[in-house]
């Protein structure tokens, strides 16, 4: 009896402290390594696109853009499917398979001899990433019990994801200029191999599997709807928002996703249970996650344009310009658990969106010359607030759920990251419209700056509106759940 009481006391102590233990840290490094790898993949390739185009003789910019889009489309569209499959076949098994596939396709991408081979390999990387993203979060919420340990783990994961973006942006320029664009892919092979070794050695083998049948009609509709949505948003700027292909793609997305919701209501084992989707902590946290990810991702693109097209920075200097954002994001991730413990999830979400919003609004003051200090301060504020929001929204979304719901919830928590292209496209459209309006009365540089200012101000206001929404819509539900 004394032994049992001691074990119970030990379990309670672990659940109420943020101490992860040696094995816990190793597991966290493994899962965060996968997060870092997928985050690095998107940013490092974006920086390397010009070198890839020259090296593999892409015919035009439009076809070159498919190097990025070919990875994004399968990741976003397959997330709901693999979120559900992870609950059925086991999260460890699917995570390990995803990492192994990612390593294989990264190697093929690094060895590509032509555009077709590279794009095919990028599609494979996207499929693998859609297996990794939801299972990494689900494993994190399973291995680390709800409370300070889980929040700390999610905080470090959020910081690592942001760090992957910054390292990719900075490292992509260094690698492509000093070595070759192929090393941007081969480095992913090395990281993936380490993650795979950690997964095989450290992740618990006691996967809980659901006996539910796979909802095939729901899966097909979700894949078609999300694919069409992301495709329409990703290609709309180049093809024209009023073009037949863009309108048809977005219309298909609306029809397919509407049909998906109807099918889910009637299916005995839905791909995404509507009862879960309608939980206030899930739907409102997901919306706020979409706001912070869409506005931060879109504003980061605007900052890149500002540094290169207005200030005349090189690609390498532009990457260095994101260091403040990466550093503050890392700090926010390390502090997130303590802040959430002190303020609560909703107050932390409000604080994060407020800080992100204020930092983004103040970018309206960025000048045409100089202004490095203001650039670092505002981007740093944006990065700090963004990661606080990401950690608090994922913590809120995955709290109070059964173990067999964590896979689906993990996928839902990652979906805003890949739908953030909507925010980027919206802000880019604002830049284009405002710049054209100013072009007749000022220089092209100042017209571009005016467009960027308008889009940055818009992004900041959206984040501040999200902060208000967090308090209005989540205060009572989260308090009840907690």
Describe the secondary structure blueprint for this structure.
Layout: H1 2-16, H2 21-56, H3 61-64, H4 66-89, H5 91-110, H6 115-143, H7 148-178, H8 182-202, H9 216-239, H10 244-266, H11 274-277, H12 280-310, H13 315-321, H14 323-343, H15 345-361, H16 372-397, H17 406-419, H18 421-439, H19 444-481
Helix pairs in contact: 2-4, 2-6, 2-7, 2-8, 4-5, 4-6, 4-9, 4-17, 5-6, 5-8, 6-17, 7-13, 7-14, 7-16, 9-10, 9-18, 12-15, 12-16, 12-17, 12-18, 12-19, 14-15, 14-16, 15-16, 15-19, 18-19
Tally of strands: 0
Average residue pLDDT? 82
Strand coverage percent? under 5%
* Total DSSP helices: 19
Q: Structural class, please?
A: mainly alpha
Which blocks of ≥5 consecutive residues have pLDDT under 50? Answer: 1-17, 477-482
Shape: globular
Give helix % range: over 70%
Largest sheet data = none
Span of the ends, CA to CA: 31 Å
Q: What is the chains' assembly state?
A: single chain
Radius of gyration: 22 Å
Order of helices and strands: HHHHHHHHHHHHHHHHHHH
